[in-house]
Design brief:
Oligomer: heterodimer
CATH class of chain B: Alpha Beta
Shape of chain B: globular
Strand content of chain B: 15-25%
Structural class of chain A: alpha+beta
Number of helices of chain B: 3
Largest sheet of chain B: 3 strands, mixed
CATH superfamily of chain B: K homology (KH) domain
Radius of gyration of chain B: 12 Å
Strand order of the largest sheet of chain A: 1-3-2
Strand order of the largest sheet of chain B: 1-2-3
Order of helices and strands of chain A: EHEEHEEHHEHEHEE
Strand content of chain A: 25-35%
Helix content of chain B: 40-55%
Number of domains of chain B: 1
CATH architecture of chain B: 2-Layer Sandwich
Number of domains of chain A: 3
Structural class of chain B: alpha+beta
Largest sheet of chain A: 3 strands, antiparallel
Number of helices of chain A: 6
Number of strands of chain A: 9
Distance between the termini of chain A: 60 Å
Chain lengths: 206, 78
């Protein structure tokens, strides 16, 4: 429900201050329509008019995220539920449901696609630049451990065979994990090749 | 909400002219094609750089179709 109020003041400035105080909001959380500019009048007596503004709360990025995911997830898993928390850097969403496997997809394909669409559509609507991070249960941390173990094994193999190894394409946040894990391994070096969504890492012998 | 409605919702959320969005399903027995039509200026917004957005729409649509034990293809009409 969008709350909208009308407030008056001697100037537009003052009318807006009154509205913000009553909404308990800051200037960047609201949209303002000036209904009446206000005039101080001749000698402050004749033709004096109050300024009038209509002020309503902007939809927050969190509100949009909730509405978007509730609608979209219903099509994949009718039991899906979400919880949202946010700080000044990002909005974190956790999905829980009966068919988490479908929501996550193969190696997180579906979860990553949802996260991407959510960031594009929310970014279009809001000047709020915080990114949205989507997770389902402990999927992200589990996937990180899996990736770490996998690339350590592959680094051993590359060091032994002295032949480069091409990994499957991965989204940017997963490539970052791989680069970071192998950064301190002197036996190999890593390189990304190709364009998203086919961009992938090659592990080279050092 | 079915897969077609899902694709329609996603498309409308991505474009500048949601009223110009048309999404229809050409149904086959086990597999169907979902065709998306948008305003000419919005085509880039549903395809995305190197097809990244339409790729994401396809991935999500396939998950929804899998729930109904169906297969779908998603095509942008130009």
């Amino acid at each position: 429900m969008q709350e909208r109020i009308i407030r008056h003041g001697r100037t537009v400035e003052e009318a807006l201050e009154n509205a913000l105080r009553d909404l308990e909001a800051s200037r960047d959380q609201v949209e303002v329509d000036v209904l009446e500019e206000g005039a101080s009048g001749f000698l402050g007596i004749i033709g004096q008019r109050e300024a009038t503004v209509e002020v309503r709360m902007k939809e927050s990025k969190e509100d949009f995220v909730e509405e978007f995911l509730k609608t979209v997830l219903k099509a994949i898993d009718s039991e899906a539920e979400i919880s949202i928390r946010s700080d000044e850097d990002a909005i974190y969403v956790d999905v829980d449901g009966e068919s988490l496997g479908l929501i996550i997809g193969r190696r997180g394909d579906t979860l990553n696609a949802l996260q991407y669409l959510l960031n594009v559509t929310a970014g279009k609507r809001s000047s709020d630049r915080r990114s949205i991070r989507l997770d389902a249960g402990d999927f992200r941390s589990r996937r990180r451990r899996e990736l770490e173990q996998m690339v350590l094994r592959l680094a051993d193999r590359v060091a032994k065979t002295r032949r480069p190894f091409h990994l499957d394409p991965m989204p940017p946040h997963e490539r970052k994990i791989v680069h970071t894990v192998l950064q301190t391994d002197d036996r190999v070096r890593t390189e990304s090749e190709g364009m998203d969504p086919k961009r992938h890492i090659i592990i080279h012998p050092a | 909400m079915g897969t077609v409605e899902l694709v329609r919702y996603l498309t409308k959320a991505l474009v500048d002219e949601p009223e110009a969005v048309e999404v229809r399903e050409v149904a086959g027995e086990r597999s169907s094609i979902i065709e998306i039509t948008v305003a000419p200026d919005d085509i880039g917004k549903v395809i995305g750089k190197r097809g990244r957005i339409v790729h994401a729409i396809r991935t999500v649509a396939k998950a929804a179709a899998a729930r109904e034990d169906k297969r779908v293809e998603v095509e942008i009409m130009e």
